[in-house]
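job 3f2a | input accepted
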Amino acid sequence: MEKAITKEILKKVRRIEVRTRHMVDSTLAGSYHSVFKGQGMNFDEVREYVPGDEIRSIDWNVTARTGIPHVKKFTEERELTIMLMIDISGSGGFGSQDQSKREMMAELGSVLAFSAVRNNDKVGLILFSDFVELFIPPDKGRKHILRVIREILFFQPKNKGTGITEALDFVNRVARRKCVTFLLSDFCLPGDFDDSLAALRPKLLVTGRRHDLITVSVTDPREQELPDVGHITLEDAETGEQLVLNTADPWTRQAYANLALDRSRAFCPYCAQCWP
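job 3f2a | predicted structure (276 res):
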């Protein structure tokens, strides 16, 4: 039984690897390099001078030896640290389509990880529920990336709650150098949504000042609107609380859609022009 489970895990990791490698090669290779710039310059080669080259880059030793002006060519020092912060709380297990939200986050995390390794960057991983459940320090290499993907896919959390503020505090403690931090979550915040969001915003601002923080909200279509399927029971995957709704009632469906839209607007107030 254990061998069968291990085989299935390896099969799924391999499928993720193949699929995301194609996306990296065909879509992200250039854009990743242009968006996440490194710091410093490394010497690359010497070439002949052409009009318009910076005079200060002339290599006088090679010029004197060959009798032809040559300039030094430098490339950007690319090594960055990419930190993946992924929400593995109970709500991530929901999915009305082919994938759950956690599987979507795993695939997105895999794309980012493979993009980073192709650019010789380090990748670290933080998996969190209402506390940090797993931390993998940043490192390089295919073996390390495959471990990161395996943990994203198959790590079994101890708790079901969501604690984004705790995860942000953690990354600010462990990442002493500036890094590109991706926060992947469905942002199903505990308690009153507005109060929880108000408490979260200062943490996001602090982390954004220390690092390049990029938040990615992963949602499911059924979290935006309800189908007309009569009476259904909804259960909170993190608290177990249940609620019975009559989805045949147009007012109920509209109220549900309005609530989802209000939460989206509240979470991203600077992108209000993106919403109808």
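job 3f2a | The longest strand covers residues 41-48.
job 3f2a | closed
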